[in-house]
Design brief:
It comes from Microbacterium aoyamense. This protein is mainly α. The protein folds into 2 domains: 59 residues, Arc Repressor Mutant, subunit A (Orthogonal Bundle); 130 residues, Tetracycline Repressor, domain 2 (Orthogonal Bundle), CATH 1.10.357. 78% of the residues lie in helices and 0% in strands. The protein has 9 helices and no strands. Helix 4 runs parallel beside helix 6 and helix 5 crosses helix 9.
Length: 192
């Protein structure tokens, strides 16, 4: 590789690493702070860059938030796709593990999405992915009537939702293993 091409690649790699640090910092701030109270200066300081660098790279706080959610949605989708290839019991296990990491953040993103330009569309994409994933991860008997399929599909989607995880885990005061058992008890009978 010639020197100029190597330098361009190195600069691009450094810019990508900087963008990842900024997104990581935004994710950490958003996880613990209402969106309206997240300050660009704080995110920049957490990422080890200036506010000017952050704005030059992302344009605005809303654009940074959208980039953060888009990156995490891609990561979530990849992990969930892998889990969908397993048995229903293993898929439930991975879903609970996923919600232990992302559940509260998903629910917070949905609740604050209206505050951020562009974020409602990303939230809708995440929701559409969840619905499609549930259909593929937990296929139903094709001999079921259309009505029974629709009812069971709705039940599966609701059972696998982050809100159900939160209700079981926190409102129901279950630990992770108990939450997994409760979700399996709700879901597995629908797959017969």
């Amino acid at each position: 590789m010639n020197k100029r091409k190597y330098e361009m690649t190195s600069r691009a790699d450094a810019a990508a690493r900087t963008a990842d640090r900024i997104i990581d910092a935004m994710l950490a701030r958003f996880a613990t702070t209402p969106y309206e109270n997240v300050r660009i200066e704080d995110v920049a300081a957490d990422a080890g860059v200036t506010g000017q660098t952050l704005i030059r790279r992302f344009g605005s706080k809303a654009a940074l938030m959208n980039a953060t959610v888009a990156r995490e949605l891609a990561r979530v989708a990849a992990a969930r796709e892998e889990a969908a290839q397993a048995s229903p019991t293993d898929t439930i296990h991975e879903l609970i593990h996923h919600y232990e990491r992302y559940g509260a953040l998903i629910l917070k993103t949905y609740s604050e999405a209206p505050l951020v330009a562009g974020l409602p569309a990303l939230a809708a994409r995440g929701r559409a992915f969840h619905v499609d994933w549930c259909r593929r991860a937990f296929p139903l008997d094709p001999s079921l009537s259309p009505t029974e399929k629709a009812v069971r599909t709705a039940q599966i989607i609701a059972i696998c939702d982050a809100t159900t995880w939160r209700i079981l885990r926190f409102d129901g005061e279950l630990d992770e293993a108990q939450t997994e058992q409760a979700l399996a008890a709700l879901l597995l009978p629908l797959l017969v």
